[in-house]
Amino acid sequence: YPLCALSPTTKQWYQRRVHGAEYKELSEDQVIHQAVAVWTGERPEHLLKKIQEEEYRKKLEEHRKSFMLYLRGEVFLRAALVRVKGEIAGYLSDNMGIVEHKDENDKKINIFFHTDDVKIFKKDLREYNQPAKQLLPVGCLVSVDARRVHISGVKNVEYQAITVLAGFWPLTPHPTLLPGGQGSVAPMYELPGGTFTFYYLELALEAKLQRKVNQLKEILGRSKGQIQYDWRSVQYIQSKEQFIDWKRSMGGLKRRNGSNRPSGPREVLDT
Fold first, then answer.
1. Distances (CA, A) of 42 to 1, 7, 10
2. Could you read off the pLDDT of 7-52 as tens digits, one per residue?
3. Containing H/E element for 116?
4. Cα separation of 30 and 23, whole Å?
5. What's the angle, vertex CA 164, arms to CA 159 and CA 170, rounded to 5?
6. Nearest one of 218, 80, 103, 74 to 161, comparing CA atoms
7. Is there a contact between 144 and 166 (Cβ–Cβ < 8 Å)?
8. Across-strand partners of 176?
9. DSSP code per residue over 190-235
10. Less CB within 10 Å around the terminal CB: N or C of the chain?
11. Angle at Cα 47 formed by Cα 200 and Cα 37, nearest 5°?
């Protein structure tokens, strides 16, 4: 079977292209691409021989079957909203807040987030070693990936942020686009025709997010499910000039060659 070595800056891998009717949910060509070996640094010795062994190939086949079972069973976490624009509306606690997003009908949608899921100019918020209320001011513009949630006893919160990005986007985390499903709202991307859905493939992610849902219920339980913001020690952005000042303070104006982020929809290159 054909193998190709791909060499990004940190990882290398061998990839296999497998054709079969069982992959029709994945692509019109009934093809799946599978990494058969991934490594960093020097290539392991005898790697090509190893990946040709019958036992190794059986394991790869088991992994493909597991992946397709997860896909058909809708085990992967659907991103209902992908890279939608929003604004930090306020904080419920030191590490929990609300992003306000307006949909295509100009309806306001509240998306709750946890500061563990925030990146500012490609770095995790916690790497800055400063309070979130200072680092990510109310009024700051962000991009959000979110899942749909129904939280009993909580009013006016229908989405939970999977990722909140302030400033330039990092390469990861990013959801994977797959055919079918319930669809995703992704205004920044030019999606193929038909129904496609973005998913996060990390199997442990839903449990992590659910713990944060439980924290939200505990916080809003004190206010009978109503959103009540905690304004203590909060910084604000109330003008374009203040937003530019904030970007400068975070090192966000140091783009090479004065290039700007693309303003139009992006083509989805990887699916």
1. 24, 12, 11
2. 455 578 888 899 999 998 888 889 999 999 988 888 889 988 999 9
3. none
4. 5
5. 140
6. 80
7. no
8. 199
9. EPPSS-EEEEE--TTHHHHHHHHHHHHHHHHHTTTT------TT--
10. N
11. 5
